[in-house]
Amino acid sequence: MKATSIFLAIFAAGSALGAPASSIASRDVQIANCGSSSDAFHLTSLDFSPNPPVSGQPITVHLVGSLDKAIAVGASADVTVSLGFFPVINKHIDICDTLAKANISCPVAVGPVDIIETMTLPAGIPSGTYTIKLDATNADSSALGCFTDDLKI
Q1: By its UniProt entry, which SMART domains does this protein fall under (predicted)?
Q2: Using CA atoms, how far apart are residues 14 and 130, in angstroms rounded to an integer?
Q3: 16 near 94, Cβ under 8 Å?
Q4: Virtual CA dihedral for 105, 144, 92, 44, nearest 10 degrees?
């Protein structure tokens, strides 16, 4: 299932996500921080257009935040996607490999992050509410960020 392509693109665009408060609300996007305030990435806003996304159609993701610690080669993330109570994806990804697909190379420097990424969702994604969790660590095992989101398609 390709439902995580949205979140992998977000991840590729801005790396690991960790909200500075308990949650971030941008338009109708609700992201819960499952990390801590010491995480390296702090999310300011995240918007999808259209929201909700439509299977087989383009989606634009706009991510804004800041990075307190450079993302080093060897950083990784665990991505879990569930539809209801049923897990559909459980994947470990190399962050730098994912970033390279968005023309971003590691190490990723400390500072502001403002990324807009457009992609087309695969056709045939079943409608429903997907729960996505992304938990990322740097090469030295320090936390980059963790977030969860319910995404309706």
Answers
A1: ML
A2: 21
A3: no
A4: -80
